[in-house]
Structure formats: C-alpha cells, structure tokens
Design a protein that fits this description.
- It is a single chain.
- By secondary structure, this protein is an alpha/beta fold.
- It has 5 domains: 2-126, Rossmann fold; 138-235, Beta-Lactamase; 243-448, Rossmann fold; 457-526, GMP Synthetase, Chain A, domain 3 (2-Layer Sandwich), CATH 3.30.300; 550-618.
- It contains 18 helices and 32 strands.
- Strands 15-14-16-17-13-18-19-20-21-22 form a 10-stranded mixed β-sheet, sandwiched between helices. It has a 7-stranded antiparallel β-sheet with strand order 8-7-6-12-11-10-9, covered by helices on one side. A 5-stranded parallel β-sheet has the order 3-2-1-4-5, with helices on both faces.
- Helix 3 packs across helix 4.
- InterPro entries: KH_dom-like_a/b, KH_sf_prok-type, Nucleic_acid_metab_PIN/TRAM, P-loop_NTPase, PIN-like_dom_sf, PIN_dom, T2SS/T4SS_dom.
- This is ATPase.
- Residues 524-553 are annotated as: Disordered.
C-alpha cells in the first residue's frame, strides 16, 4: 500500500494512529518535503500545530525503525512564498503532484483537498478532522466578573479595566513585569484557538498585528515593528442587556417598529454604546425583522439568528453592496469613524435600509455634527432621524431630527426663511438646536436656555459674522453691537468709515445682503462706552500681538477644517488656540492656511471649539 499524507493528517497524528490500528501496516509512506517544510515553519512561529506535526514525524520515524512501515521523503522543499500562500492552496498542489508521481493514495483531513484530488483523478482517503480540545486560555486567568479588558505588555505589570459599566478604573492586577516568553506562549495559544475553534476566528492578520475573536473575547496581539514591544489586549462585554433594561424606551421601541429608521447611538468610549446597539439588534430580530451587522472587528454579542459581516475585500463599501442583495430590514453598523463609514451608512439608509450606527461623541449634538460636511446638509434628517446618547450605561438623551423651512429662531425677516434642521428632545419635543446655513457656513445654534442669557446663540453668531465681514474692509479696531435680531451697529475708526461704506454705499449694501441684516456704521467716538475701556462686550480687533494671536475664522469643508492665516507666514510653525487654550501646533502651508483632515482627533477638537463659538487664534 502506497500513501501520500498531507499536512492536515500529519498534524492531527492520524498516520501513526492508522498504523497502530493495523490499517497502514507495512505501507510505504511517501512524505513530501513540502509537508515537512510547512510544519517546520509553523513550529518556528511558535504555533502548537507545528510542534504537533514534528511529534508525528518523530513517531513515524520510530515506526520506520521498527520495520512496521517504510518512510521515504520525496519532492522538493516548499519555498517561503509557497508557505506564505499555503492558505491559497500552493502547498496542496505540490503534495497532490507527489501522489500522482508515485501512484499513491492521497490521505487528507481537508474536505476541499479531498474533492480537488478526486477531481484530478486521484485515489483519495478522506479522514474526518480531529476536534482539538481547547481548554481555558492562559489570558483568561486575568479576568474576573468585573473585568472588561486585560492589557498585557512585555516588561510591564499586568493591567486591567475593572468595575461597573460607566464606572471603570484602570488598575494593576499583578506585581511582576511580564516577560516575552510568556506573552509569546499566550499569543501562540490565541492564534491556534482562532484558527481551529468553531466559536473563534482570526479577524485581521497583518505584519505586527493580529486580531482574533474567541468566544466573547476580542483579542489584539501587537508585535514589533508595529508596536515597540509585544502587547496583548483582550476585551469582552461584562454585561448583556435587553431594551427592557433601559429607562423610557417604550416610545423608542414603537418608533423603531413603525418604519425603518436612521439611528445614531452615541457616547464616550466605555459608556455602553455597543451594549445598547446589541440590545436594539436583538429587539428588532425578536420583532420579526431581518437584522444584520457590519463590524470591524466583529464583537457584538448577538444571537446566531443575526449574521455578522465584516469588511469584504478590505472595504465596507463592498460589504454594503452585498448586504443590499440580502435585503435586511435593519443593519447595525459598529462603529462609524471615518468619512467612508459615514458615506456607506448614508448610502444604505437612502437605499431604504433601517440603519443603527454606533459613533463616538462627548455630547449628543456631536453625533450629528460629525455628519456635517460629510453628507449634504439637507439630507441629514433623511439619513439620521434619531440620536440616542448613552452615558454610564443608560440612555441620557434622545433627539428627534427633522427638517423645516422656517426663519431660524432669533432672526426676524421673512426673507431669511430657509431649510432648518430642528433637533428636538424626543420626550418633550422641545427644540434643542437648529442647524442651517448662515453666510455660506453651516452653523449649529443651541436653543436651550436662550431666553435666560444676555446674548443668544443667534446674537453671538450674528456678531461673529458681522465682525468677520467688517474686518475685511478695515485696518483699525472695530466694535459691534447687535441691537436686534436683524440689525447691527458697527463702530470703526473715522479713517475706515469710507472703506466700510464703499463707493455709493456699495460695499456695506453687499455685506447687508449677504448677512440679511441692516448695519448702521458709526465712528468709535460715538460708541456709548467710548473712553471707558471697552464697548458692551464687543471685541476690539486692533492688530494682534504674537502673544495674543491672530484671530481667524476656520472653514469646514467635506475633507478638511481650513484655518486661513496671513500668507506672509507660510512655512512658519504656529500655535492654534481656542479662547486662549492650546489646541495644537502646525506649520502654515504655502497657500497661507492650515489644513486639518476631518475625522482626526485634532479636527474633532477644533470642530467642537467652533461649535461652542470659541475664539480661534493663531500665534
């Protein structure tokens, strides 16, 4: 009897087992060098299956010495490229060729290999693969009931995040620093479990980074050169909830079921966003909807009825295209971070799919702000009609998002009517924010508590816009008073009066038309507080010193936050501040501006400062 085994049966020890049972007694076993090379490569990488294969080769050598079988090593060694492409069948093809050359029975535990071999006309013996027993992973010993994540790094004592949802603390869980050998052992165990377990898979494998999902744990293994040392981070949910565990969700449940919705679940990291999204997914599934998920990595703890999808061919756009063929009623998108993610979410929502997206935000309104500039403003309510803000594991705020054609609150003239996105408190239906275009910019104006403040959000917005327009026509200081929602008084130096008004009043008329306001231009001497050190809280815009900083008005585009700076400062390193607080350091570009890519941490901090109407300066 002539036999050619592939790697799968050698690793499982099936050949020596068949010899012991008498089925392969006296057989000639042609062992391809390609099999030996693959096993050796696996062992060099620290994988248990490699060492299991070596032990089987040693057993077969002993059986050969005892005369029970005859072993011949044949064929060429697998190249490094073939080993790297082993999952694509490169080595399998070499092994099948050996079976053809020696007219031997091809033995495998790989069903694909078996069927291909039969298709090639080989005599094939298919052995059911062995179920490998997998006990508790070594890293699991660091978990207890209150542990959400474990953080292990070479040379550092073990750390963990522990506590209740919304009340986590990062704490030491050991005394001695970890060594590289222990972490390598943990990593090998995790990778083996990810490749062989029915309830596990390898989510991502790149040079320096492996992400595995094993049962309810998401485990990231980082190695040099990607990281400065071996690090293993394991995260798992510490609680699984249903929608009934949250307060005041009855109306939200009804809203989700009355028709397909666009929902953003927002909150800070660790607030419980994904836990709530999982509860929503299972509620919708129980209510008779077809529910799918889009995740990278896949770690939502949902039932088997809900299929979890990840990136297809490296992009969520292709995943979305495939999902549209599946026709889900709702898709849970966990998590939305980049501009491309928002684009995919919007495309699926506009295609009629109910969407629930998970997004990082420190305030409820920030979730909507992240859509501004990424999708057309007027389309936002069609894409997102509900915002649910999670804090400390509970629903803190729910917003209803609608479009109305109206005069924005605080403005008066009827010809200022425009499409306005009204953000209302879901429970009381009281407007909380309005989002609209003002002087070619998208603005978000808070409405809560406006009547109790000395200066409303609209007044501040109007003052900033008037100051920006007038500054372009002046060289000296200015002061602005908003006398009514549609009227402003501007005080400038006597030398600047003619520049502001323009020939025949043309310049000031253009400014009034752009702003939709009537502007009365007067000299600084006419200001009621002239000579007392300031004017009614208005800003004086004398030429700023380097210490004060140059006051700038950033522009938000679809891809960047652009900060215009004096063109003469191109190439200079400058500091960007908000209300005098440091934001970041940057170099002024050749065109006299600073461009910050949207979606970055710096851009989000800058956009928050803009939303809060803070003074942005460059020094």
């Amino acid at each position: 009897m002539k036999i050619v085994p592939d790697t799968s049966v050698v690793v499982d020890g099936r050949v020596s087992e068949k010899v012991a049972e008498g089925e392969y007694a006296g057989a000639t076993i042609y062992l391809p060098e390609a099999v030996v090379g693959e096993i050796e490569a696996q062992a060099n990488r620290g994988r248990d299956i490699g060492w299991d294969g070596i032990e089987e080769l040693q057993r077969l050598a002993e059986l050969d010495d005892d005369g029970e079988i005859e072993i011949e090593y044949v064929g060429g060694r697998a190249t490094e490229g073939e080993i790297e492409r082993a999952s694509e069948g490169a080595i399998d093809a070499v092994i099948r060729e050996v079976a053809v050359d020696y007219d031997a029975t091809f033995v495998t535990s790989d069903i694909v290999q078996a069927e291909v071999g039969r298709g090639k006309g080989l005599t094939v013996e298919y052995l059911e693969p062995k179920e490998r027993e997998r006990g508790r992973l070594g890293i699991e010993n660091y978990f207890d009931e209150e542990t959400m994540s474990v953080h292990l790094k070479v040379g550092v004592v073990p750390m963990a995040k522990r506590g209740a949802v919304g009340d986590m603390s990062y704490q030491r869980i050991g005394e001695d620093p970890l060594d590289a050998d222990l972490l390598k052992e943990f990593a090998s165990e995790i990778i083996d479990a990810g490749k062989r377990g029915d309830d596990a898979f390898i989510e991502l494998r790149e040079e320096g980074m492996i992400i595995a999902q094993i049962r309810d744990m998401r485990i990231a293994i980082a190695e040099p050169p990607f990281s400065d040392g071996i690090e293993i981070t394991a995260v798992r949910p510490i609680v699984k909830t249903t929608m009934e565990d949250y307060e005041h969700v009855e109306e939200l449940q009804s809203r989700l079921l009355e028709r397909d919705r666009g929902v953003l679940v927002a909150g800070a990291p660790g607030a419980g966003k994904s836990t709530f999204a999982q509860a929503v997914a299972e509620f919708l599934d129980d209510a008779g909807n077809v529910v799918k998920t889009m995740e990278k990595p896949r770690d939502l703890q949902v039932g088997p009825e809900i299929t979890q999808y990840t990136e297809l061919a490296g992009t969520m756009e292709k995943t979305a295209d495939s999902l549209l063929m599946v026709r889900p009623d709702y898709t849970i998108y966990d998590e939305i971070r980049k501009t491309d993610d928002f684009g995919v979410f919007a495309d699926m929502r506009l295609a009629g799919v109910g969407m629930v997206g998970v997004v990082h935000a420190t305030r409820p309104i920030d979730a909507l702000q992240r859509l501004v500039g990424r999708v057309e403003l007027g389309m936002i309510p069609q894409i997102v009609d509900t915002v649910v803000f999670i804090e400390e594991g509970q629903i803190q705020t729910i917003y209803d998002v609608v479009t109305e054609v109206k005069v924005p609150q605080g403005l008066m003239e009827q010809d200022l009517a425009r499409p306005v996105i009204v953000v209302r408190d879901f429970e009381t239906q009281r407007p909380a924010y309005e989002i609209y275009t003002f002087n070619r910019q998208v603005v978000t104006v808070p409405l809560d508590g406006e009547d109790d403040s000395e200066e409303s959000g609209v007044d501040r917005l109007a003052k900033n816009e008037v100051e920006r327009e007038i500054e372009a026509a002046t060289r000296g200081p200015i002061e602005v008073d908003i006398s009514s929602p549609n009227q402003a008084i501007v005080y400038v130096s006597e030398d600047d009066i003619s520049h502001v008004i323009g020939k025949g009043g043309g310049r000031i008329s253009d400014i009034e038309e752009r702003l939709g306001m009537s502007i009365d231009v007067r000299t600084l001497d006419e200001h009621p507080d002239h000579g007392t050190g300031g004017g009614n809280g208005a800003r004086q815009t004398a030429e700023p010193s380097r210490e004060q900083g140059e006051i700038v008005t950033p522009e938000i585009t679809s891809r960047h936050v652009v900060i215009p700076v004096d063109g003469a400062r191109a190439g200079e390193t400058v500091e960007v501040q908000a209300d005098g607080e440091y934001l970041f350091t940057a170099t002024v570009g050749r065109e006299g501006d600073i461009k910050v890519s949207r979606g970055s941490a710096i851009a989000e901090e800058l956009e928050r400062a803009i939303d809060r109407e803070m003074m942005i300066t460059v020094s």
